[in-house]
Design brief:
single chain; alpha+beta; two-stranded antiparallel sheet; 17% helix
Length: 75
């Protein structure tokens, strides 16, 4: 597995964005992901469980940093 990430200073792999269809909060949506991020092909098992089991966020702000393409924030 490559050690390259989107935040690598000089990535050696080509940037390849691609559309991915997923279901978030009961809605089918298409998101654009790319190589070098966490789980670029869809929602990983851990995130799927978190989205099913976690309580609704409280307050007006939420921080979602370094979480792949953002399924938590988008949900």
């Amino acid at each position: 597995m490559s050690e390259q990430h989107y935040f690598s200073e000089t990535p050696e792999t080509e940037f390849k964005p691609r559309p991915v269809q997923v279901e978030l909060a009961g809605r089918k949506v298409t998101v654009t992901t790319a190589n070098g991020i966490f789980s670029p092909s869809g929602i990983d098992k851990g995130t799927a469980i978190l989205l099913q089991e976690a309580p609704d966020p409280q307050g007006e702000r939420m921080l979602d940093i370094g979480c792949g393409w953002g399924p938590i924030t988008l949900t």
